């Protein structure tokens, strides 16, 4: 059995987090000591590890609570929804990043933004020996295998939507 302090320390959490988890019925201690202190079992520790994994994936405590009540039967659905949400957030952040660089008008900032623009990408492909036909084939294969990732990639290069549609149409 673990005391609340022992378990919190092992899991790198605060005592108040475990108290809160108890309060919202997310993680109840297995028993209480004669002095009414919370005591956690090995099974509680395993459950807390699951909670921490779900938290690290960005799931809300309410979603985690639902997952644990359903014995993880819907974990895939929750995680797929979270992944879709993250993909959307990344797309929005990349767009904002591009917009800020455009507003600043300083191409010297590009290395610090971790952005690669279309011109840089084409230059790298050409430097690796690819010609227009090779690049076109590269896009066709990317589109066939991972169409959404291809779109995200093209957007991350700052390519206008109309040009993206033309590039994607090559695979049709």
Automatic annotation (TrEMBL):
Domain HTH merR-type, chain residue ranges per copy: 1-70
Domain of life: Bacteria
SUPFAM superfamilies: Putative DNA-binding domain
GO MF annotations, alphabetized: DNA binding; DNA-binding transcription factor activity
Key word DNA-binding present: yes
Entry-linked CDD domains: HTH_Cfa-like_unk
Keyword RNA-binding: no
Keywords, alphabetical: DNA-binding
Protein name listed in UniProt: Transcriptional regulator, MerR family protein
